Amino acid sequence: MGEFLLLLGSYLIGSIPTGHLIVKKMKGVDIRNIGSHSTGATNVNRILGKNWGRAVMIIDVLKGFLIAILSLLSGFNLWIVGMAILLVVVGHTFPVFIKFKGGKGVATFLGILISLLIFCFVEFPHPWTYGAMVIVVISWIIVHKSRKMMGLSSLFLMPLIIFYFAGLTIFVNFSLTLTIVMTIICLFIVYNHRENWRRLWRGKESKTDLI
Q1: Where does the pLDDT of residue 206 fall: very low under 50, low under 70, confident under 90, or very high at 90 and above?
Q2: Angle CA(33)–CA(26)–CA(147) in degrees, nearest 5?
Q3: Which of 1, 96, 108, 121 lies most in the core, judged by the most C-beta atoms within 10 Å?
Q4: What is the pTM of this model?
């Protein structure tokens, strides 16, 4: 019963449509009909400005962080933990409260990533754990600040994260289960950005710098 409640709660918390609620309150419009039609922070930034975009991003990050921490502390097996962190991203992308049309999952995924990194830094004090993450962060910052495209930098981050967790599994015996789940989430987010891929190919991707 506890496992079911964790999984259900993960999906429902992920489904809280932060961007939709804030834009509806501030502008009286449905964010899903504007811009990229996403409820995520980047689209909120286009409509309400950078500060509101950042606020939505922080709240969506906290959704993923909260679920990941609760899952890791739950004592359930790692497949349940993995399903919980997957479901919070699925909930963000397909929220039950607004007819399954939400965001792309990046901010919620970042919350999950932060919680797992804290866990890894404590449990696996190894040069790969720290050194590889420094390389990932620096690489992402260079791409993001040079191009100022959230879509591009989000897409660039996903293979780096897959590479990082694969290395953790090889070098420090990190959970293969969680590495598989993180890889699935990364690929899911890449798929969610398929329109960004098309705009990048046509040279029409807009610049947005939230960080």
Answers
A1: low
A2: 65
A3: 108
A4: 0.92
